[in-house]
Structure formats: structure tokens, C-alpha cells
């Protein structure tokens, strides 16, 4: 049963389940609504250009960090390839949120392969899978939020369900995977003992804190809108509503992807390419979990707000069309 704990097996099983669900949805749309449902958006110039722009931004940032630090970051990326994936993952998440799970997975794969090629990085199949998982999970969260557009209470409920589910997965996985003995970390001259229960408590507790932030944010948002409603134009009200929806979606995405991929999946691949043990990498990534989520929010939220109107592309519109319309490529 060891293969069940293999991240590659879990990723493939999850991908197959998502494909099956998409095929069922395709059949349902055809029978119920007499419409075509595309698993991938229809190929169009605007869609291709938008995806290419996100990939280019992701790769250019990795190259920029390498050049601006006189290849110091390049050495770090080659010594600890997981650091490159952590940075790449921030921008891959944006691609997943903008273009859905399957295009997000495609963006993740191309970003990793091109960044390895252009920076003489270290290739490992596990990091390729992790990059694809960043796009897949963030895109799936975007799909779920599509049904909550302009409905803040639904967004808060979905965030709670997703975060609670992720919290349970993290607790069960770490509780079963880690022993009771403290994990000793000798890293960059530091010698630290980390208790497994403390590590689980930090990660699980912060996920619960994320749920509280989402509901507290909804409370203050509703209070502010009711107070200032007479002073705001309709456009300003819509923009503020979009602000909360984006905030809750990005916070949920950042917490879930960092917990499931950075903390649970990537330590196995880190251990294969370094002298540190699997448990030590879990402890390192667990300790860095909260700073990584905060960094994700500081980078993804403003970039998402800037890039979304520039791209002005809603891939959901290219997923469904009337079946009487001839199939074409624009």
C-alpha cells in the first residue's frame, strides 16, 4: 500500500477523477441544456496569447532573479531546486486561476520545462508534477468559484468547505506519516528540534485562521457596503464586490496549494536531491508555511488585479456554446 502515499500516484488519480467528472459534465450539458461543453476552451488567438503572456511572465521572473543576483539565485535554484518551484508556483497559480485546471496544468508544465532549459536548472520529474499540480488545483478552485460570482456568501461557504477539507487531509497525512519523535533539522548552520505535534498544530491552526479571516472579511465588507452604499456608484459597488471574491479565492488557493503541494508533496522530491531526510524537509517546509502563504498573497493579489483587466479574457465563455452553432476556430 506504499504506492498510495506516492505523490505521483495521487496526482495521476486526482487528474483521472477530474477528467471523468469533466466528461460526465460534458454529457450532462449535451443532454440537459442541448449545449456543447468543452473540457478545454476553444482554441482562439486571444486565448493563446493570454496563456503565452502568463508563461512568459513566470519564466522572465526566474531569469530576472538569476541575473539581478549575479547568478547567486541560479546557484540556489540548482542546489535546492525546490526553491525554484516555490517561486514558479506563485505565478503558475495565477495562470490556473485565470484559465482553469487543464490550461493551468499546461502552464505549470511549460513554465517548469522552459525555466530549467533557460537557466541551466536541475530537472526532476517530481518538480514537473508539482508545477502541474499548482496549476491544476488553483484552476479547480477557480472553477468552483465560478458558481459564486457576485455572491459573497457562497464564496465564503466554498472557501470554508475547501479549507476544512484541506485541514483534515493535512492532519491525517502528517499524523500517519510522522512519528512521535522530534525532527532534528541541521540546515545552514542551524540545529533545531521540531515536535511533529507542534508542526501539525501550526499548519492546521493557520488553515483554521484562514477560515476566520474570510468570514471576518465578509462581515466588515457587508458592514462597509451598507454604510457607504448611498455614496458609491454602481460600478464602485461591483468593484468592491469583485475585490472580496478575488481576495477569498486567492487566499483559499494560496493556503490549499501551499499545504498540499509545498508541505505534503514536495518534501519527497527534495529528499531525493539533497542530503536531508524526508521528515526534515517536511519540518522545513512546515515552518515556512505561514511566510509562504503571506508572500503568495502579497504577490498574487495585486498582480491578479492588474493582469485580469489587461487580459480581459474569460475562459468560461469558451467552454459552453449552443450545439447548433457550427464548430470553428477564430
Concise description?
With 330 residues, the chain is mainly alpha-helical. Helix content is 76%, strand content 5%.
What's the SSE blueprint?
Elements: H1 7-33, E1 35-37, H2 45-68, H3 72-79, H4 81-119, H5 125-146, H6 152-177, E2 183-187, E3 190-194, H7 196-228, H8 234-272, H9 278-287, H10 289-311, E4 320-322
Antiparallel strand pairs: 1-4, 2-3
**Structural class by SSE content:** mainly alpha
The tally of beta strands, per DSSP, is 4
Gap between N and C termini, in Å? Answer: 48 Å
Helical content (DSSP H or I, runs of 4+): over 70%
Question: pLDDT average, as an integer?
Answer: 81
What's the helix count? 10
Shape: globular
The low-confidence parts are none
**Which strand order spans the largest sheet, edge to edge or round the barrel?**
1-4
Protein name: ECF transporter S component
Transmembrane segments: 7-28, 48-70, 90-110, 122-141, 153-176, 196-221, 242-261, 281-304
Keywords: Membrane, Transmembrane, Transmembrane helix
Task: Explain this structure.
By secondary structure, this protein is mainly alpha-helical. It has helices at 7-33, 45-68, 72-79, 81-119, 125-146, 152-177, 196-228, 234-272, 278-287, 289-311; strands at residues 35-37, 183-187, 190-194, 320-322. A hairpin with a 2-residue loop joins strand 2 (183-187) and strand 3. The longest helix is centred in the first third of the chain and has 39 residues, at 81-119. The chain crosses the membrane at residues 7-28, 48-70, 90-110, 122-141, 153-176, 196-221, 242-261, 281-304. Keywords: Membrane, Transmembrane, Transmembrane helix. This is ECF transporter S component.
Amino acid at each position: 500500500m506504499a504506492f498510495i502515499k506516492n505523490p505521483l500516484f495521487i496526482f495521476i488519480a486526482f487528474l483521472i477523477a477530474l477528467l471523468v467528472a469533466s466528461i460526465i459534465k460534458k454529457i450532462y450539458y449535451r443532454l440537459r441544456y442541448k449545449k456543447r461543453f468543452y473540457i478545454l476552451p476553444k482554441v482562439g488567438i486571444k486565448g493563446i496569447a493570454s496563456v503565452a503572456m502568463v508563461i512568459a511572465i513566470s519564466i522572465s521572473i526566474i531569469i530576472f532573479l538569476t541575473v539581478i543576483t549575479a547568478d547567486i539565485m541560479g546557484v540556489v535554484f540548482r542546489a535546492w531546486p525546490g526553491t525554484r518551484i516555490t517561486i514558479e508556483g506563485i505565478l503558475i497559480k495565477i495562470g490556473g486561476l485565470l484559465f482553469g485546471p487543464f490550461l493551468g496544468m499546461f502552464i505549470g508544465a511549460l513554465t517548469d520545462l522552459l525555466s530549467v532549459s533557460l537557466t541551466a536548472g536541475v530537472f526532476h520529474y517530481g518538480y514537473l508534477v508539482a508545477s502541474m499540480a499548482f496549476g491544476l488545483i488553483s484552476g479547480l478552485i477557480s472553477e468552483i468559484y465560478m458558481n459564486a460570482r457576485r455572491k459573497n456568501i457562497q464564496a465564503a461557504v466554498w472557501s470554508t468547505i475547501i479549507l476544512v477539507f484541506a485541514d483534515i487531509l493535512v492532519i491525517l497525512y502528517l499524523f500517519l506519516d510522522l512519528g512521535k519523535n522530534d525532527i532534528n533539522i541541521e540546515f545552514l548552520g542551524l540545529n533545531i528540534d521540531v515536535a511533529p505535534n507542534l508542526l501539525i498544530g501550526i499548519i492546521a491552526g493557520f488553515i483554521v485562521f484562514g477560515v476566520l479571516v474570510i468570514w471576518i472579511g465578509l462581515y466588515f465588507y457587508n458592514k462597509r457596503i451598507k454604510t457607504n452604499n448611498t455614496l458609491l456608484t454602481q460600478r464602485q459597488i461591483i468593484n468592491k464586490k469583485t475585490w472580496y471574491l478575488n481576495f477569498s479565492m486567492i487566499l483559499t488557493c494560496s493556503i490549499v496549494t501551499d499545504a498540499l503541494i509545498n508541505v505534503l508533496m514536495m518534501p519527497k522530491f527534495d529528499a531525493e536531491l539533497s542530503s536531508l531526510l524526508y521528515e526534515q524537509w517536511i519540518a522545513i517546509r512546515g515552518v515556512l508555511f505561514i511566510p509562504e502563504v503571506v508572500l503568495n498573497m502579497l504577490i498574487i493579489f495585486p498582480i491578479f488585479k492588474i493582469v485580469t483587466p489587461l487580459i480581459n479574457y474569460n475562459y468560461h465563455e469558451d467552454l459552453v456554446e449552443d450545439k447548433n452553432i457550427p464548430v470553428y476556430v477564430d
